[in-house]
Amino acid sequence: xxxxxxxxxxxxxxxxxxxxxxxxxxxxxxxxxxxxxxxxxxxxxxxxxxxxxxxxxxxxxxxxxxxxxxxxxxxxxxxxxxxxxxxxxxxxxxxxxxxxxxxxxxxxxxxxxxxxxxxxxxxxxxxxxxxxxxxxxxxxxxxxxxxxxxxxxxxxxxxxxxxxxxxxxxxxxxxxxxxxxxxxxxxxxxxxxxxxxxxxxxxxxxxxxxxxxxxxxxxxxxxxxxxxxxxxxxxxxxxxxxxxxxxxxxxxxxxxxxxxxxxxxxxxxxxxxxxxxxxxxxxxxxxxxxxxxxxxxxxxxxxxxxxxxxxxxxxxxxxxxxxxxxxxxxxxxxxxxxxxxxxxxxxxxxxxxxxxxxxxxxxxxxxxxxxxxxxxxxxxxxxxxxxxxxxxxxxxxxxxxxxxxxxxxxxxxxxxxxxxxxxxxxxxxxxxxxxxxxxxxxxxxxxxxxxxxxxxxxxxxxxxxxxxxxxxxxxxxxxxxxxxxxxxxxxxxxxxxxxxxxxxxxxxxxxxxxxxxxxxxxxxxxxxxxxxxxxxxxxxxxxxxxxxxxxxxxxxxxxxxxxxxxxxxxxxxxxxxxxxxxxxxxxxxxxxxxxxxxxxxxxxxxxxxxxxxxxxxx
Length: 618
Fold this sequence. Notes:
8-stranded mixed beta sheet, globular
């Protein structure tokens, strides 16, 4: 028999009754039933119930076992009584009577329990991550991650891509975040960088004649942490293709992701890739307040400035006299109660805005009829009851009183709302309130039950502007990826830079950006002009990106690609809200590895070897 096991803890069935077996694993739970000890023995594959009584030669040793001790047992497989069968376990029809025991690794007092669903502080979980990872949910998440990566690889190979590995130690290449720098021992005072992405290398592969490349690539960015972003490193499905247009990239990556979400999504609906909407960046900001909208929520915001221009609501009326301002409405079907409207107004205030105006539509009340006709409320009630005064619907809320019934009705019709519905309003320069409006839209959809929780909703965001203007300095700079091919090529760069759009695209799912990519600018003369508009001369471009610029002078093919975040994909599939739940050994919110004590102080010898000195910070 094998030194440690003849079977895994998920392998035994009723067909093994009477067999002598050997199992190894961890003590998941111990139960003492008056002289009979039951132990749930757990390994990576599952759980088997083992039992021991006073007739066993190792009963005294079994009595000493505690949670998370690592043990080996030999025993005989027995059938459980029919009333004791556990249908939730693959091994639920059998149990193993222990005849021999070896303690492979005793465990001290546990800082966190593996059995059960207790919540522990993140600091505890990350310090003792090896224990945290033993928990059932974490085991399932990490197995899913491995299976997802395997599925992606197979799907990419099936689409005639080959996997190539690009360097980890390289030159600095700005991708929108800070680099992690690596000092060079052989070249004192100079630094390598860990790649923020394999961007330049994968483009160079296209110049080198490799038609289709992909890689499950590690990327390193010194970023501030968020729930959906690691502060140090992450993995992405990185791909690039030659002789392609934007739609070719969509047609390549979309079926891969759709297949993965169908395979691992637990039965949630995944729309066919050809039906995924393509929405311009500007429309996404207008309708959803985000470039990664959650389309499970049907709410679409609209501009309603004309209904407030010159109205009795002075705040909006005066605001609209300023250039570049507008008023937008967030429709809220079924949200027509003062309690809900006040709650959403308080939400906006918590987010840093003065508040959100609102209107809601309800049955006409006796109070409003009395006020309208100059009669008592009791008289109004009688007229409504008799039908002498027609009931119907009325608009309520401070905004409705200020702008009057005609404007209120025009707003209702534009938004397609009715009785029992509401609308919320924000005004100003769009960039000052779009983010809050987008988050408010999400909250409204969730609270009113409008968001379809049983669906993965994908949407392509396209037509990203290449440039933006700093309102304080008037300087033109890149708003998005500077390596994207401008739509219209060199000709597009002759006009207003703020009108230039790039062949750049993102794919969002359920409010998260999963994919980002572009058709690349492979023509040096167009690249130099694009950077010149943003204030970078040719010498600066050659200094920063010399390797790629030089390569483009030797017959560069048109090419494009994208990258999909592995961690976010698995986070969505696992139904988690925090990306650390699907990463084996993540950093904490302060970019610290509590388990390995990183970052740590270097020794004097290490610093001398690379010619560095640490200057203490005040």
